[in-house]
Amino acid sequence: MIKKVLTIAGSDCSGGAGIQADLKTITVHKMYGMSVITALTAQNTTGVYGIQEASPDFVANQIDCIFNDISPDAVKIGMVSNREIIKIIAEKLIQYKAKNIVVDPVMVATSGSKLISDEAISTLIKELIPLATVITPNIPEAEVLCGFKIKDEKDMVQAAKKISEQLKGAVLVKGGHLVNDAIDLLYENGNIHWFKSERINNPNTHGTGCTLSSAIACNLADGKTLAESIENAKAYLTGALRAGLDIGKGSGPLEHTYSIGN
Q1: Which of 29, 107, 113, 184 has the fewest Cβ atoms nearer than 10 Å?
Q2: Of 207, 211, 218, 234, which one is the catalytic site residue?
């Protein structure tokens, strides 16, 4: 049977990130994509111009409808900015014994400003992150979670160790904000695994975090190990960047469908 992957995240009306990027990624992996929308956003490649959150009850209703009918083989969680929404998602994941949970802890904008309140971050850390099979913070998000600045690969290791104290699962610290090659660190059960790849010269990177975490979820749904899932997901992301899609007036989206027909 076809594998089923659920994304719980916000909608990006311009199609580059959030639910839309997730569903494109899931579809290209030849899996059945489902979505729970936590917020509507008015955004495009130049910025975010409005956010309208769903009510916690409606988020719960969406999750119930999915798990009571088409139980997912993996769950990817993206931006969840509201404390009550975070709490209800955690409760429902426990209720339905969800598996292969990938949490992309979207907390910090590219500019460095926080996207969610300190209260919501606290709830995310205490209630949702501990349920994850793996979390995928970038450098600014990892700094929020570990409490100190990350300047190099040594700091990435220390941050991963510190963050892992909050987890039952693993942590993937994405090193793309550092100046050297694209390098990520997986810390799993006390073991360190580095993933190194070429840095693609492409300014259009809108939705890279969403895409990577969704691709990891797809590979976990397919029965791959976590390390294999990350390796495959990074290869897919590299291809989507290398395809060189250039649309929009700002930081444009990836070419999620680059592999179709190949």
Answers
A1: 113
A2: 207
- For residue 68, give the 3-state DSSP assignment: coil
Q: How many CB atoms lie within 10 A of CB 53?
A: 18
Mean pLDDT of the 109-136 span: 85
Of 210, 218, 234, 252, the active-site residue reads 210
Over residues 230-239, the mean pLDDT reads 96
Query: Tokens 């802890």 correspond to what residue?
Result: 105
Residue 114 catalytic?
Answer: no
- Please confirm, yes or no, whether 25 is among the known catalytic residues: no
Give the pLDDT confidence of 52-72 residue by residue, as tens digits: 999 999 999 999 999 999 999
Query: 236, 215 in Cβ contact below 8 A?
Result: yes
Buried b (16+ CB within 10 A) or exposed e, 57-75: eebbebbeebbeeeebbbb
DSSP string, 103-153: E----B-TTS-BSS-HHHHHHIIIIIGGG-SEE--BHHHHHHHHSS---SH
Of 10, 169, 209, 252, the active-site residue reads 209
Q: Which residues are within 8 A (CB) of 241 and not within 5 positions of it... i.e. 6 or more apart?
A: 200, 202, 204, 205, 208, 254
Q: Residue 209 has what pLDDT? A: 92
| Mean pLDDT score across all residues of the chain | 92
Tell me the C-alpha distance between 29 and 79, whole Å. 22
Question: Catalytic residue at 176?
Answer: no
Is 174 an annotated catalytic residue? yes
- In tens, the pLDDT along 164-195 reads 988 888 999 998 766 556 789 999 999 999 99
